[in-house]
Design a protein that fits this description.
The structure holds 2 protein chains of 2 kinds. Chain A is mostly helical. Chain A has one domain: MetI-like (MetI-like fold, Orthogonal Bundle). In chain A, 72% of the residues lie in helices and 1% in strands. Chain A is built from 13 helices and 2 strands, in the order H-E-E-H-H-H-H-H-H-H-H-H-H-H-H. Chain A has a two-stranded antiparallel ribbon with strand order 1-2. Chain B is mostly helical. A two-stranded antiparallel ribbon of chain B has the order 1-2. In chain B, a hairpin with a 2-residue loop joins strand 1 and strand 2. Chain B is globular, with a radius of gyration of 24 Å. Classes of the chains: A mainly alpha, B mainly alpha. At the A-B interface, helix 1, helix 3, helix 4, helix 5 and helix 7 of A face helix 1, helix 2, helix 4, helix 5 and helix 6 of B.
Amino acid sequence: MAGRRATTGLFLSPWILTFAAFGIFPIVFSFVLSFLRYDPLNPAGASFIAFENYARALRDRTFWQSLGNTAFFTIGTIPVTTAGAFLLAVALDRRLPARSLFRAGFFVPSVVSMVVISLIWKNLYAPFGALNAALDAFGLPEVAWLQNPKTALPAIMLMDVWASTGYYMLLFLAGLQSIPRELYEASALDGAGTWARVRHVTVPLLMPVTLFVVVINTIRSLQVFIEVFVMTRGGPMNSTLTTVFYLYDIGFFKFEMGYASAIAYLLFLLILGFSVLEMRTMRRRA
Amino acid sequence: MSPALGGARREGREAHAARDGGRRGGLAHALLLVALVAILLVSLYPLFWMFALALRVPGEAGWRLGFEHFESVWKSGPFDRYFLNSIWVAAWVVGANALLASMVGYALARRRFPGKRALLLGVLATLMVPRQVTMIPVYLLFAKMRWIDTYAALIVPFAVDAFNVFLMSQYIQTIPEELEDAARVDGAGDFGVFFRVVLPLARPALAVVAINTFLTNWNSFLYPLILTNSEKMRTLPVGLALYAQGEHSVDWGPLMAGSSLATIPILIVFLIFQRNIIAGITQGALKG
């Protein structure tokens, strides 16, 4: 019996060790850091400054701008991605020629590295790139997509919708396929048309999946980083500066790791707050 | 339900899909198909464009097809090094997860131990915390341990993924315990039971773990970015992103060749294991 307990401990040890080293330790340590002024090049000079990092963040206009950009990104992309994913899923949840080809084709962008996607779209958005060539072909004026502070963030958002819709489509498709067929038949017997069936059967029954999609997408969107790192590095004029890019810049270029930790914690609170809020409102509606 | 194990529910699905069959609405059906084909083209065009730019080299008639861009990044990038680093790291992370996540999953599925509930809740809670919160302490820890710019830094933090642990634990619960008892009666110890009975029977779940871990690790960016600082330690996504920042920022041919190198292995894995990947994602969603 003692031997059995020893192997249980042994089997669990990798998890307990990594949980301690990469779960608990960093969460606690970055909380401590958020109350310090800390430069990794000069760790001896660290000093306790209580809530000064948090107060500084609230005064920091660039931080607020990064939050504004991140919120714009999140609020702007999620309805489009969710609606697009839902419609594609409804379209594919029927007998269609080459259904699995469509499904795989829509999904494939989600397995490609975001670095690669960002580079391809940077080329498509380039002054002499394919998108401007298309605008030319229709006789429309060219757009300086990533160079113009007005269009840079929407351009990244458009790319993100392209890149992630297929993934959420798969989630909706799984939800649709779990709806019992009898429910549709029953509502058809009651004389419900296609639209009424979607509204009164599909939408309510998909509420849990929709909730999952929106929460996951919110968590991801609030952490937008790679797109900005590769395409614009926050520019032009901070128009694409997202909170995670700002935090990366503060932590790893300016080496103000205390301040960066405070920003990370504020972001974490936002993510947590939004997730809980979404779960509450959507549960109530379901 | 056993997770993600191929199209077990396939027939049900097809019957289900048949409800929309019927001759009624033939025009609407055709329009829908046209729209879907258009969306498919939009969905695939950027990837096609990547390969096109990578293979297009200057020639007499403006351009011709050739592998010169690939040759140039392979040697000068140095994408050969990035590629090997990516393969090496992914192999270790996949192997570590296959072994360690099954060990932990087995202990969770079969054993009672003090603090089990607390451990599970603790892990679930830390999963909620975004990587940006943990990256600075992990960076400082590794700096202290002189692990920055080593393979260990790229492998160890990812060696036991919690999702893989849960997946293995759920699958192992579906394996009849009598099989283990029988092996014990035949004189097998804990390790014998685990390696000779449990692991072979858990092969379908192991495949899901391996595929998912490979996909995630191959594209992993933030941690490899902050935990490496020399060219020879970069993985493909990091090497590519930094290559694109400097003097090569508009060398589209080489850039797209490097992008293709980072994408081809993923596409191969996707094409081979498409059904497992899709099933893995959708099963997770239904549980979530």
